[in-house]
Amino acid sequence: MTSEHSVGAVTARRLHFEQPLATVAGAVLPSYDLVYETYGSLNADRSNAVLVCHALNASHHVAGWYVGDENNIGWWDNMIGPGKPLDTNRYFVIGVNNPGSCFGSTGPASIDPHTGTPWGSRFPVMTVADWVEAQARLADALGIASFAAVMGGSLGAMQALQWAIRYPQRVRSAVLVAGTARLTAQNIAFNEVARRAIVTDPDFHGGDYYAHGVKPKRGLRLARMIGHITYLSDDAMMEKFGRASRAEGFKYHFDVDFEVESYLRHQSDKFAEYFDANTYLLITRALDYFDPARACNGDLSAALAGAQARFLVASFTSDWRFSPARSREMVKALTDNRLDVSYAEIDAPHGHDAFLLTDRRYHAVVRAFFDTLAREQGIVGGAGQPIELPGRVEPAVAPAGLPQSGFAA
Amino acid sequence: MTSEHSVGAVTARRLHFEQPLATVAGAVLPSYDLVYETYGSLNADRSNAVLVCHALNASHHVAGWYVGDENNIGWWDNMIGPGKPLDTNRYFVIGVNNPGSCFGSTGPASIDPHTGTPWGSRFPVMTVADWVEAQARLADALGIASFAAVMGGSLGAMQALQWAIRYPQRVRSAVLVAGTARLTAQNIAFNEVARRAIVTDPDFHGGDYYAHGVKPKRGLRLARMIGHITYLSDDAMMEKFGRASRAEGFKYHFDVDFEVESYLRHQSDKFAEYFDANTYLLITRALDYFDPARACNGDLSAALAGAQARFLVASFTSDWRFSPARSREMVKALTDNRLDVSYAEIDAPHGHDAFLLTDRRYHAVVRAFFDTLAREQGIVGGAGQPIELPGRVEPAVAPAGLPQSGFAA
User: Fold this and answer.
1) Alpha carbons A250 and A244: distance in angstroms, whole number
2) How far is A315 from chain B (nearest CA, A)?
């Protein structure tokens, strides 16, 4: 058993891409930046790279911390590091911020060089497939022909699945945690409420609020509250808050009277400060649209016919937005194609957020998967940095104060 | 088997109460109107009266239809009528609109006689216990000393439970459908998001929007969307909408691309037209605050120690906002007190809304309960109207176009 440590102080890099990105929706992002981080070192045969894809409210800052901002810890730091389930003594791990984000890579709040003003409403609608294209170009720039694994939770799992479909020869394994091959109508509906909250906020200004010096914070707060509630389980919320009231007895008003109200307001206030509303629209829409089976008349097995990776699929019993039933659909479609699939349904009380939390059984499953992968593929750790990382050092892009839960999907 | 018919054309009545209603919150409603309807006729010994309590988006219009508005059918018309599970050939059924509502009884949109302007933000916060007091006064006015049953679904079940606690000698049975003795933190949280949507709408004006000639419709729409989603099950939504898109292929925008989005917008637009925002705040708050066990250190069995009624408790397997587990808590507390309790957990796919829908097994359980009650208590139907119904005829108070689902809690 290796002792577990943080990857320590990390540095983000910003890499510019001049090649236009043509999107599934038929638009073109003429040029763009991607911000990324790496942990561990690439080995001599470049066989130990793992790409980690982020979900709704996360970024390239997956592990470690920043000098001068030591409390800004990567969102999957409990999973990734020396001796951790995804062991950076052996694997070279890459975290990348997707285009459309508000955490560094080019997004709606970025300046469109052709106009000198923020992209705003003119930023192209992004899909999971578009993100995978952008990530593939980063892999090219890093000289990585094939990933030992592409890994993600929630929306990140969608990206890993898309990688396995789109680039079967570049993905030797895919780790899909708390994922789905398509959202249910209920999930789309929750996303729609969040979007309506933002779009109908008078401060939204059709998406071009930057020019007005305002943000649709009312809408962002509501969107965040809905997300927060639905990423937790009923039981987990009851365990955490119960029906506790803030003071002795009720005040009988429409303001805060229960702990859960106070918590939601605090979390949503913080979120509305640092998150961009257009990014929220864009990312929830990417969730809605993802549906690889759609091109095959709804037949997911057919959609996965070209995949070659081995798979680890993991779900959590109390996750009702990305329920185990959704993971089992993927497992069935993968096994229909006689692919090598491990499936773990983790008995965990925390809802969708469980994928971000430390759970002994969950982490043991991921650790065993990566250990087996290394053994069977002869993957050894790199000794120092064999490549110069491209792009310029990014001074301070990652968001401070990412909440510890409820930021999953 | 009696053939099932509608109670037919019905008339609402408005009854004025001069006696002030002192609320649990410490406020006073100096005088008020209650609007109510009755179906069937009171028998000679006045033993066949059943009170039906309404939930969030409903009213006193429980069964039948109005002359000139034949499509405006009562919200529990499938349950109540001649030959129906609650048989109006045998029982005298009363539907009453609670104070604070926007469907006829005095509420925030009513004129405060002391100021000549709408109550608005000054309307007292109402609790379930306050509603039961108001209902008891209506029972007094009708000369009903004891109800054969007090019955309700969701928030209506809370009122029936409160009746059994507060007036044990006036409630011979209580029918609690899709209810709970207290909301969970998750439920309070959903209510809080709905309230925040309303309160942060710039058209809310602190609750006194009437004077501004506007309504916080943006907030009401969002509140309604959240309610609608959570009163349905994931499976029921998937069955109804799937991932169907409106046209061929996606438009890739933030407007409507999925059927479920179109449906939610349509439903919420309608709702925002006819519902009052202050009533939404008030009713969700009554849901949050209801917690009879609170006075007994959380011991529900102790809170129910004085109850004497026989109980029918029913829940639905796919109801995740008022789940079977909540009903089982009530059943346990009732049986702890050696009360006569029947419990039915109905395997139904429609979520919380199931309590409003026609389900053979569910209706059979209710029918059997009322049949047994009549047999054991020697309840016979009334022959014509033995009492003059107090109050003046109310011309047209009930809302037109109540949606067929999603209006439960």
Assistant:
1) 10
2) 17
Of A186, A233, A320, the CB nearest to B229: A186
Reported as type and span, the H/E element at residue A281 is helix A277-289
Cα–Cα distances in angstroms (integers) from residue B191 to residues B41, B195, B280, in the given order: 38, 6, 9
pLDDT digits (tens, 9 = 90+) for B261-303: 999 999 999 999 999 999 999 999 999 999 999 999 999 999 9
Selecting from B25, B197, B237 the residue whose C-beta is nearest the C-beta of A252 gives B25
CA A281 to centroid of chain Cα atoms: 15
Subunit contact A193:B257, Cβ cutoff 8 A: no
E-strand ranges in A77-126 read: 80-81, 86-87, 92-96, 111-112, 117-118
Tell me A200's DSSP state.
T
SS3 content of chain B, % helix, strand, coil (to 5): 35, 15, 45
Closest-CA distance, B212 to chain A, in angstroms, reads: 17
Torsion of CA A76, A77, A81, A83, to 10 degrees: -100
3-class DSSP state for residue A221? helix
Answer yes or no: do A254 and B199 touch at CB < 8 A.
yes
Q: What is the CA radius of gyration of chain A?
A: 21
Residues from chain B contacting residue A242 (CB–CB below 8 Å): 185
Section B113-121 average pLDDT: 96
Q: Give pLDDT, residue B1.
A: 39
Q: Count the neighbouring beta carbons within 10 Å of the beta carbon of residue B196.
A: 23
- Taking CB atoms and an 8 Å limit, are A243 and B26 in contact across chains? no
**DSSP secondary structure of B281-310:** HHHHHHHHH--GGGGGTT-HHHHTTT---E
Contact predicate A55/A409, CB 8 Å: yes
| Residue-level pLDDT at B222 | 98
CB contact under 8 Å between B183 and A237, yes or no, is: no
Instruction: Report the residue of chain B nearest A127, measured CA to CA.
Output: B252
A261–B26: do the CB atoms touch at under 8 Å?
Answer: no
Could A185 and B25 be called an inter-chain contact, meaning their C-beta atoms sit closer than 8 Å?
no
Task: Kindly identify which residue of chain B lies nearest to residue A194, measuring between CA atoms.
Answer: B222
Q: Is the dihedral of CA A101, A55, A73, A6 positive or negative?
A: negative
Report the SS3 class of residue B392.
strand
Residues A79-134 have pLDDT tens digits of 999 999 999 999 999 999 999 999 999 999 999 999 999 999 999 999 999 999 99
Q: Supply the mean pLDDT for chain A.
A: 94
Residues of chain A by 3-state class (helix, strand, coil), percent to 5: 35, 15, 45
From A197, A234, A254, residue closest to B184, measured CB to CB: A234
Q: How many CB atoms lie within 10 A of CB B110?
A: 20
Interatomic CA distance for residues B362 and B345, integer angstroms: 9
A-chain residue closest to B27, CA distance:
A252
Run of H or E including A334: helix A324-336
DSSP sequence for B94-161? EEEPPTT-SSSSS-TTSEETTTTEE-GGGSPPP-HHHHHHHHHHHHHHHT-SSBSEEEEETHHHHHHH
Residue B345 above 80 pLDDT?
A: yes
**Catalytically active residues of A, by annotation:** 154, 319, 352
Q: Which residues of A touch B202 (CB under 8 A)?
A: 202
Q: Does residue B405 carry a pLDDT above 60?
A: no
Residues A182-204 pLDDT 10s = 999 999 999 999 999 999 999 99
- Provide the pLDDT confidence category of residue B400 given band limits of 50, 70 and 90: very low
**Structure pTM?**
0.95
Considering only the beta carbons, identify the residue of A260, A285, A288 that sits closest to B188: A260
Q: Is B252 close to A200, i.e. CB distance below 8 A? A: no
> Which residue is catalytic, options B77, B319, B353, B359?
B319
